[in-house]
Amino acid sequence: MPRKMNKKEKDEFRAKLCSKKESIIRKLTDTITESKEMESNVAQDVVDKAETSYTKEFLLSLSDGDREQLLLIDEALKRLEHGEFGVCQLCQKEIGQKRLEAIPWTPYCIDCQEKAEQERESQ
User: Fold this and answer.
1) Which of 1, 5, 67, 112 could form a disulfide with 9 if both were Cys (CB 3.0 to 4.6 A apart)?
2) What's the pTM value of the predicted model, to 2 decimals?
């Protein structure tokens, strides 16, 4: 049975999660702004256009991982509200405190995370 978090601990994790979420949103906004600025430079030769297209694609691809992380953060915030935060979503065991401190949005304990990664690699 996972230990019950007190209000202070919950507030600290909520602050960490919200801070990371704001950071990602800021980064995505900057990426979108940068992408739009590239599009607005209309008078370009073919090489510049190809380079700009590649750069734009690269910038937008960076946000895929960020979008996934945003979803994980939102899910962690929901678990925090429902008293399920810190519980592995696969084995239902308590996630280690050090792991939560390092990656508060993690849905899995270290063992289940390793298994999930091994399964992904073997596909």
Assistant:
1) 5
2) 0.71
